[in-house]
Write a structure and sequence with these properties.
By secondary structure, this protein is an alpha/beta fold. It is 31% helix and 29% strand. The chain has one domain: Metallo-dependent phosphatases (Purple Acid Phosphatase, chain A, domain 2, 4-Layer Sandwich), CATH 3.60.21.10. The chain contains five helices and eleven strands. It has a six-stranded mixed beta sheet with strand order 3-2-1-9-10-11. A five-stranded mixed beta sheet has the order 4-5-6-8-7, with no helix packed on it. Strand 10 and strand 11 form a beta hairpin.
Length: 197
């Protein structure tokens, strides 16, 4: 599974769309998780919901495939892309709610605000992802790590991947052009075995 993380867009719906396009289209993320809820999100969703029009997208594809011009085909492909974005978009829950994902044997805790993270959350998680950092941030504390892509204006996205080429679970940061900034392997829980004499 690949989970992408997008920090607050601060009202910039175009930049949010570029980030989702990179995560879903180029990096093949199974979900793009937006770590905020703001006007950029509302504008993005409204733009892509309205593109669906009156008839279902499947019907529009069938109609344009049979009789469409190149520009009509391009329009329908844009609508399909928008529908795919909406299908893959997730929004981190508002505080005090938390989201959990499991990748391999790693538990990923997802929150909007770092202040809502409690001691129990940290103890039970391998990776804590939050959205309110001022810049891209990664800190490792023993087997646990904390990550935030920072605001989208800073130009960073996150991706946690359990299908990495090096094996295991990897947390990566990308810029908005798709260039890898850094990559960190995430330790698993590991088996705890005690042998008695």
């Amino acid at each position: 599974m690949r989970l992408g993380f997008i920090g607050p867009a601060m009202g910039d719906a175009a930049k949010l769309e570029k980030a989702i396009d990179l995560l879903v289209g180029d990096l093949d993320a199974d979900a793009a998780i937006y770590l905020a809820e703001d006007e950029a999100l509302f504008d993005f969703v409204a733009a892509h919901e309205s593109e669906a029009g009156e008839s279902p997208i499947e019907q529009q594809v069938a109609e344009v495939a049979a009789t469409g011009s190149p520009s009509a085909i391009a329009d329908v492909l844009a609508k399909l892309r928008g529908a795919r974005y909406l299908n893959k978009l997730r929004v981190a829950p508002a505080s005090p709610t938390r989201a959990l994902e499991m990748l391999d044997d790693r538990i990923v805790l997802i929150v909007r605000h770092k202040a809502s993270i409690g001691e129990e959350d940290v103890i039970n998680s391998n990776v804590v992802v939050y959205g309110d950092a001022k810049e891209l941030m990664f800190k490792r504390f023993g087997p646990r790590c904390f990550f935030s892509p920072g605001p989208l204006a800073g130009g960073s996205l996150g991706l946690i991947d359990d299908r990495s080429e090096i094996g295991g679970v990897v947390l990566q940061a990308f810029d908005l052009d798709g260039e890898l900034r850094w990559s960190e392997a995430i330790q698993g829980r590991g088996a705890k075995v005690m042998v008695a004499p």
